[in-house]
Amino acid sequence: MEGARSLQASLGLHRAKIDALRDLEERLNARIARLGELSLSVKTLIDSGPLLLSDLGMDGKDGKDGKDSLPVLPISVESEVSVQATLSNPHCEPQCAGSPKSPSSRRGVNRSVSWVSPDEERPVCAKEDAPRFPPHGHWVPADLLERRASFQGEAAQKLGGRQVQLETKLGNVPCILVEPMGKLLSPDEFISVGVAIVFQEAPHSGSSVEEWAQVLKRTKLLDAGLSVAFPDLGQALLQRKEEGVSGPTESTELAADFQEVFNAILSSTKEDFYILCGKGKGAHHAMDLAARNSAKVVSAILFAPTSPPPSSCQSFPGPVMLVWAQDDKKCPFENAPLWAEQLGCRDDAVAVLRDPSVGGHDLARVLRKDERTATDMLAFVAAVLLVAELPKLKADLADGQNGRKSHVLRLLEELPQHLLTQLMRQQVGMKSEGTEGHADDLAAALLAHVLEQPQAANSIMQALREWINNDMPSGASASE
């Protein structure tokens, strides 16, 4: 056990170094984009007349405090060790974690600047192909930003998405839709696996937007082909109140409003599968909607929900993931058994709990401190979407079609390699030396097996459900 813990700590350090290199790469790209801006600015000023140091703001003074006028781009490298502690495995001892800077302390890079002369202000934009890097890493081309004003809002820029207005019976509800880069560039060819919808009752704030931006970065949900919607019903209700229009007075009326928002997102995105997420009170709305729309909702992910749990927990048939830090003071972790009981008493229940030791009520901090929780969220999403996709693939194969195979392959590639290896051993009956290889190769081989023997889809679905219900064991845990 001591050797396993040491190995896990070493792996955590290596992952942290990889993340640090990725962050450094992003900052280098930002500096390259900045150099492009300066080059374009110099060319513009040269073409327009005599070039003066004061035109470029390079006279060494800014006229106020004597500091250099050119901005300094900060580079901060995070170093962290994952913290792993789950309620279902009391023998797992938490590991120490580093203390990286808070995500909110990072200053963003402004990719458009203004050069001021005594006569006029001339805006100089970045090169047309210069990318903007949101926290989740899926860059947005500059020409797309200029063509669509919906990307320009402050909250949309922080989340790396675009603003949309959901038309509902209670009026327009603002929503930020974050989509993978491939869907923005080539929506007709992109393979989309579904939409995750995040609910919270309070209006969006700067801190909450930054929190969810870090969640997207840590979980890498966009990499799996999943879009994420952040409707702001709280802001819509607040605006109605300011306009003198009475808002919902009972929980049934509020539930109807959330249903309206959900229907509007369905109409605008038109996907086959949806995952509902909620934090605090938003977890109640997520579960209520999941229970009423189980034909479209394949799963729910709940973050530190308020208590007591709603009765809808027993009505939703899909898999549920519960993420709750043990040191949460706002929504005390002591209430977790109440939720576990409600979620566990369902027929054929599939549920998993992740309970990191530290993080409080800040989900970004939870995922920063516990790498396993962030990784398992992506694996959970891929597994539950596969459970929903495989019956469709099986039906298509029965009709002589295989249009869903690209969706299945994309999700298989997001599963942990040890799980793919286990599935290959179960399905193909190969020995361990025959199932080693890259995760993408294993995913392709497993899909080929299903295409040849469609009945294998049933056993794969059952194995995925059992893996979730057994606390999603890692490769080391599964082999012990």
UniProtKB/TrEMBL annotation:
Residues 87-115 are annotated as: Disordered. It comes from the Eukaryota. Residues 101-115 have a biased composition (Polar residues). SUPFAM superfamilies: alpha/beta-Hydrolases. This is PGA3 protein. It comes from Symbiodinium natans.
